[in-house]
């Protein structure tokens, strides 16, 4: 099919795929980049300020150049040392960049592209847009922010010369992807797109008018069997896309890099349902069922082709206006349809899973939407989404209980250091959340990471909250987790962990039975030291109960749970309480943090043997 098009000369000038950002892989990091740019707001983005912006990123440790002069290595060996601007400037200048201002332009590019800022030479003072300002707030809804941002991302646009109409671009990627998956699902029994399908066929969809052709390519790809044949198709497809007969391997790899990165941005909107393995390497993407009403409404007025703008000024006004583009559910009847769609999904789930709701939850479902005005209807939709998410989490919790295979899987992950190095922070938080829920007699296990409509983490917990809150009948705890095992661990985790615990203690009236479980693949000696002082002596006037455990040590807790299940015995949270209490008492007896670390191991062994 593709070859026939090229024989007939019907090319679309497909020179390169589109991408959202190759500068910042993690969308959440854009917030830090935006914070730094905020320091320059109101100034022109001259070449001097382009350089200054990159220097400020070095100063704030958001960018680390490849070649650090030996005399400045101490700033990276000792993370407690603040990098002065003069030192950051010297580090930047020592790199010998051929075009120094370009570095600042590259770093600010995703902020411009996603409509969080306007920072370009010759276009007036640097401006943080209304959407960007919302992003900077600590209580922002990341799903809403990236939904509004990605609705505006289009190619071509007057602000970006990389993806021009001359090269065949005519697409709003977010809308076009929604449309492609919806239409594909109507033609195929296989729903959604695999990782390979998404990475191959979404970044190379540069014109929304060719969605049907791309769907046909996907259907052809699905019929091919065998790794060799699949690989041959990928190579041929890439060669025809890039218009070359000798495709470099890097070009093919780029498609997968772009696709993985795009998925991370798209999933933040909550309009896509993502199923992943623990490494988030093998994943599948589909439309979120509870958002189908919104998706259909969007696709009824937008087809995924790019908007036309008279000039750059009109485009900048567009991306700066948080109320644009117009959303169909600004009309009351469309809002009612959204509420009805979620209501039907909830009823279907209740019937299928035979779940009984509380009186308060039943009241939510009995509300007559015809009596609600627009403001109350929006609040009602939010309540329905929360109830739907709660049901999803309840079903997952039920599937966890007594699930020996799942317990073994978590134990294996926690004991594999190489595997843990590949896991994303939010996935690590989810694994620990599941491990705590498996015990099964908590009052509440509450992870603080933002969730999608399926209850899956969108990103890691915000910095102003504990990662996980745990409420039991006899005690309360927070669980703080990190994958950081470097000498930065105690700097980045120590004070925040103690602060989170103190805030949790205050909220709960300084109850004597409040703990913090800190879990990491490895505990740095300086982290042991800091926590030991807090436990043995005090933090801000009061001692705390912090228990540092390696992932291997935490896995022992699950191994004991597994033993109980296999013997038909019940494992309760009181077993955890005995362990935590014993570990804290050992702190009082230890004369040094290193002795305490050793006693943690010994106490765990005694607890496993049932001697505590």
Give the key terms.
alpha+beta; globular; disordered N terminus; 4 domains
Secondary structure: elements and pairs:
Layout lengths: L1 H6 L22 H9 L8 H13 L14 H4 L7 H9 L6 H14 L3 E2 L8 E2 L1 H7 L5 H11 L20 H15 L5 E2 H7 L9 H13 L3 H16 L6 H19 L4 E5 L6 E5 L4 H10 L10 H9 L11 H22 L5 H7 L8 H27 L3 H11 L2 H4 L4 H14 L5 E4 L20 E4 L4 E6 L7 H19 L6 E7 L4 H12 L9 E5 H16 L6 H17 L3 H16 L4
Parallel strand pairs: 8-9, 9-10
Antiparallel strand pairs: 1-2, 3-5, 4-5, 6-7, 7-8
Helix pairs in contact: 2-6, 3-5, 3-6, 7-8, 9-11, 10-13, 14-16, 16-18, 19-24, 22-23, 23-26, 25-26
CATH topology of the largest domain: Restriction Endonuclease
Q: Over all CA atoms, what is the radius of gyration? A: 27 Å
Q: Give the overall shape, derived from the CA principal axes.
A: globular
Could you name the CATH class of the largest domain?
A: Alpha Beta
What is the domain total for the residues?
Answer: 4
Largest sheet: 5 strands, mixed
| Multimeric status of the protein | single chain
| Classification by helices and strands | alpha+beta
Mean pLDDT: 91
* Number of helices, counting only DSSP H or I runs of 4 residues or more: 26
Span between termini: 70 Å
Instruction: Trace the largest sheet across and list its strands.
Output: 6-7-8-9-10
The residue ranges in which pLDDT falls below 50 over 5 or more consecutive positions are: 1-14
Tally the beta strands: 10
The CATH architecture assignment of the largest domain turns out to be 3-Layer(aba) Sandwich
Percent strand: 5-15%
Helicity level: 40-55%
């Amino acid at each position: 099919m593709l070859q026939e098009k090229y024989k007939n000369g019907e090319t679309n000038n497909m020179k390169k795929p589109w991408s959202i950002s190759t500068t910042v892989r993690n969308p959440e990091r854009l917030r830090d980049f935006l914070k730094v740019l905020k320091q320059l707001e109101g100034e022109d983005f001259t070449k001097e300020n382009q350089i200054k912006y990159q220097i400020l990123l070095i100063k704030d440790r958001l960018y680390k150049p490849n070649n650090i002069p030996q005399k400045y290595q101490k700033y990276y060996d000792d993370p407690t040392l603040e990098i002065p601007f003069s030192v950051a400037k010297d580090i930047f200048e020592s790199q010998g960049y051929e075009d120094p201002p370009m570095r600042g332009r590259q770093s600010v590019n995703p902020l411009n592209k996603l409509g969080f800022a306007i920072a370009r030479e010759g276009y007036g003072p640097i401006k943080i847009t209304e959407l960007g300002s919302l992003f900077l707030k600590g209580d922002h809804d990341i799903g809403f922010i990236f939904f509004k941002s990605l609705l505006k991302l289009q190619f071509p646009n007057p602000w970006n010369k990389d993806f021009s109409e001359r090269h065949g671009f005519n697409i709003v990627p977010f809308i076009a992807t929604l449309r492609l998956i919806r239409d594909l699902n109507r033609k195929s029994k296989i729903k959604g797109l695999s990782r390979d399908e998404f990475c191959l066929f979404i970044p190379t969809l540069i014109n929304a008018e060719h969605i049907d052709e791309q769907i046909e390519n996907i259907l052809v790809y699905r019929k091919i069997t065998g790794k060799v044949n699949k690989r041959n198709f990928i190579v041929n497809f890439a060669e025809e896309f890039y218009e070359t007969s000798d495709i470099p391997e890097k070009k093919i790899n780029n498609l997968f890099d772009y696709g993985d990165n795009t998925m991370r941005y798209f999933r933040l909107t909550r309009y896509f349902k993502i199923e992943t393995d623990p490494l988030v390497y093998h994943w599948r993407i589909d439309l979120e069922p509870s958002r189908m009403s919104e998706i259909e409404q969007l696709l009824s007025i937008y087809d995924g082709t790019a908007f036309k703008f008279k000039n750059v000024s009109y485009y900048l006004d567009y991306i700066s206006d948080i109320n644009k583009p117009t959303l169909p559910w600004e009309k009351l009847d469309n809002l009612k349809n959204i509420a009805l769609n979620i209501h039907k999904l909830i009823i279907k789930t209740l019937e299928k899973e035979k779940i009984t709701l509380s009186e308060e939850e039943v009241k939510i479902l009995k509300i007559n939407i015809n009596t609600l005005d627009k403001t109350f209807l929006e609040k009602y939709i939010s309540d329905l989404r929360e109830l739907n998410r709660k049901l999803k989490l309840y079903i997952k919790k039920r599937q966890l209980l007594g699930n020996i295979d799942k317990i073994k899987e978590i134990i294996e992950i926690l004991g594999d250091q190489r595997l843990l190095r590949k896991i994303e922070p939010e996935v690590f938080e989810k694994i620990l959340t599941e491990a705590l829920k498996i015990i099964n007699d908590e009052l509440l296990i509450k992870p603080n990471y933002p969730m999608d409509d399926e209850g899956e983490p969108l990103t890691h917990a915000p910095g102003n909250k504990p990662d996980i809150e745990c409420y039991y009948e006899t005690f309360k705890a927070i669980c703080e987790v990190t994958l950081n095992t470097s000498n930065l661990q105690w700097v980045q985790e120590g004070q925040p962990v103690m602060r989170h615990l103190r805030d949790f203690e205050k909220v709960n009236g300084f109850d004597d039975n409040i703990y913090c479980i800190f879990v990491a693949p490895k505990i740095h000696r300086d982290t042991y030291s800091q926590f030991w002082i807090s436990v043995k002596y005090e933090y801000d006037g009061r001692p705390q109960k912090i228990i540092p455990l390696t992932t291997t040590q935490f896995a022992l807790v699950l191994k004991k749970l597994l033993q109980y299940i296999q013997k038909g015995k019940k494992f309760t949270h009181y077993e955890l309480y005995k362990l935590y209490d014993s570990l804290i008492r050992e702190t009082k007896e230890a004369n040094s943090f290193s002795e305490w670390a050793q006693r943690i191991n010994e106490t765990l062994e005694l607890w496993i043997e049932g001697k505590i």
